[in-house]
Fold this protein.
Amino acid sequence: MTDVAQSPTALGQVQESYDAFKARGLKLNLTRGKPSASQCDLSTALLSLPGANDFMAEGATDCRNYGGAQGLIEVRRIFSGIMGAPADQIVVANNSSLALMHDTVVFALMKGTCDSTAPWSQPGQQDGIAFLCPVPGYDRHFSICQEHGIRMIQVPLRDDGPDMDVVEKLVAQDASIKGMWCVPKYSNPTGSVYSDAVVARLAAMKTAAPDFRLFWDNAYAVHHLTSERVEIANILELCAKEGHGNRPFIFASTSKITLPGAGLAMFAGSKENVKWMLARLAPRTIGPDKINQLRHARFLKDEAGVTALMDKHRELVAPKFEKVLEVFGARLSGISGVSWTRPKGGYFISLEVPKGMARRVVALAKEAGIELTPAGATHPYEKDPEDRTIRIAPTFPELPDVAQAAEGVALSVLLAVSR
Ligand SMILES: Cc1ncc(COP(=O)(O)O)c(C=O)c1O
């Protein structure tokens, strides 16, 4: 084990390297979990699609006009395999799956689900309803709960998914637990992939709330970083087999496939859930942006088209992850209490530092010119009880900047642990 703290020479060297880095006056940013401009360039062709006279979709659908609440069948077919649902059990909405997740939570709060006897906002419990939140997790999931007064109960997230002993116990005894956030593949920020055993237990578990829902946010379904295209078990089929067909609300989007600012969001579920969702959407819109859907159908063509495009993303993104891992490996290996994830996909690396040091590391990095996601953002109420987790987002800056930023983060960690 390297123990920087015990060697004054080592401490002096770390301080010197950190000061030298800081003196370079760099402005780097590792907070943004978004595609780089080069990644967006991969989909620039979308901007000239569909052609001026290309507006009729299958079923004599005039995409210029109102209607088509469920979305074009062309798009639903392309994403059927990725969503793990038949095309008739998918709804295609406008950009942002986050918006769709937010609205789904609000719909359930206002109206209840198709299995509810009352809206979730009137559960009969004094403290309102609660969601299980695997941690570390996605800050914007937590913001939805916070915004709408949903209590958040943390459950530990491991490499193979949430700690199911904890989850099963909680949902079995507490009827106020109505939902659970799940990012089953290449989770934000750890890169965890739910094992088949975990998915099977989520499908089978007994819940005290009859209208409990898994918010299955498969945001990184096709966002591989290695040649291994990791697959997960089919939650929709497993839940149906266990007699809990309505349990999963499945979400995904093309935000990080095509363009985040002009993508498509998708919802999938049982026939009953789709009917419920369409009923909720009916008073809200007379139809989604079908021109954008047609544009995507023309551009992606089929699932193989999505795969080919994601291979190009991988070529741009994987070297950035490799660079961060290389720098961390060289600088931080063997430091007690310091570890990091090696994701096979997704958009993040999760860096763990010794207890009580994450905020300090983020502050030191900031002083040295590197913006990091605030410590705590990976936990409900922005409070990481151990102050250990730092989310690293390497996709947006160009490779040389990623390399420098990783170097600066590593020096900040070394300095924090050596003082
Ligand atoms: C887990 C997860 N879900 C959803 C989103 C946002 O998706 P969208 O762009 O479709 O709203 C992100 C973006 O970082 C994410 O990490």
In short: Residues 303-332 form the longest helix (30 residues).
